[in-house]
Design goal:
It is a single chain. The strands form two sheets. Strands 7-2-1-8-9 form a five-stranded parallel beta sheet, sandwiched between helices. Strands 4-5-3-6 form a four-stranded antiparallel beta sheet. Helix 8 packs across helix 9. The N and C termini lie close together (4 Å). Strand 4 and strand 5 form a beta hairpin. With 316 residues, the chain is α/β, with parallel strands linked by helices. The chain contains 14 helices and nine strands. The chain has two domains: 234 residues, Malonyl-Coenzyme A Acyl Carrier Protein, domain 2; 68 residues, 2-Layer Sandwich (Alpha-Beta Plaits), CATH 3.30.70. It is globular.
Length: 316
């Protein structure tokens, strides 16, 4: 394997779990050190919450977002300690784009943790609780999902927002419109239409108030040019200008996440192996459905990290 064939991908919300990275913490001091960095910004013990909190506590978006960025940054640092091999390119699913930008040296962990906590707060408060919803549509073509949403919108908003893999699309918008679209998707032949346990319609125009508020916070923060290219959710292209990266992060809040297109873009760049740099294996599962030729590795435990390093170094 050449360097050009390796990509790192960073997961978004939904990959968190109570007790994650506990095995890694037993073997690497980087876990404690990185979580202390984040805790100092947040004003509470993030590691204690991660290990001893409840799943409900970890799923609060203003907690989930800094937690996942910290966890992914921790694993990136563990990778850096284990090997000198670096990926040719990175990408992140929604929130995961922030983790990728920390790894690429665009924004510091401290600033990222501060900003994504605000991102979570702003997104949660953009739409009153109970008025927004999201749902996963399984087994229906993208264009039919989009058509069902369009026919169900009436004077409300419901849109496809996460194109996760062929046959797996997440829709979001006003709660009543999402319910109508779920029924329409089922009538059109979807295998499943499942409401998701979130109360905010992420990646829709309803999030514009959150984007406007976060824009000012991002603008006041120092960004650098990336040391490793990052494929952004908006546009599915790398960007080297720090000011343009800031705008892409603002736009991302109201724009869909084209993950299928992102993985196809990575493949088109010559990537043959993707390392999921974060807890869980959500992205690895999606990748298998998008392109069966890709090799997917995980580094969330000491054993997985050692195996991934050995496989990639041997391939070189």
């Amino acid at each position: 394997m050449t360097k050009n064939e390796l990509a790192f991908v960073f997961p978004g919300q939904g990959s968190q779990s109570v007790g994650m990275l506990s095995q890694m913490a037993e073997t690497s001091g980087l876990v404690e050190a990185t979580f202390v960095q984040a805790s100092d910004v947040l004003g509470y013990d993030l590691w204690d919450l991660c290990q001893n909190g409840t799943a409900e506590e970890l799923s609060q978006t203003e907690v989930t977002q800094p937690l996942l960025v910290t966890a992914s940054t921790t694993l990136w640092r563990c990778w850096q300690e284990a090997t000198e091999v670096r990926p040719a390119v990175m990408a992140g699913h929604s929130l995961g784009e922030w983790s990728a930008l920390v790894a690429a040296g665009v924004v510091s962990l401290e600033d990222a943790v501060r900003l994504v906590r605000l991102r979570g707060q702003y997104m949660q408060s953009a739409v009153p609780a109970g008025q927004g919803a999201m749902a996963a549509i399984v087994g229906l073509a993208d264009d039919l999902v989009a058509e069902a949403c369009q026919n169900s919108s009436s004077e409300q908003v419901v849109l496809p927002v996460n194109f996760n893999s062929p046959g797996q699309v997440v829709i979001a918008g006003h709660a009543e419109a999402v319910e109508r679209a779920m029924a329409a998707c089922s009538e059109a032949g979807a295998k499943r239409a499942l409401p998701l346990p979130v109360s905010a319609p992420f990646h829709t125009p309803l999030m514009q108030p959150a984007a406007d508020r976060l824009a000012a916070d991002i603008e006041a923060t120092s960004f650098s040019a990336p040391e490793i290219p990052v494929i952004h959710n908006v546009g599915c292209l790398p960007e080297s200008d720090p000011e343009k990266i800031k705008q892409l992060l603002v736009d991302q809040i109201t724009a869909p996440v084209p993950w299928t297109q992102t993985v196809e873009k990575l493949s088109g760049m010559g990537v043959s192996t993707g390392v999921e740099c974060g807890p869980g294996r959500v992205l690895s599962g999606l990748s298998k459905r998008i392109n069966r030729e890709l090799t997917n590795l995980n580094i969330e435990s000491p054993e997985a990290l050692s195996a991934a390093v050995e496989q990639i170094v041997t391939a070189e």
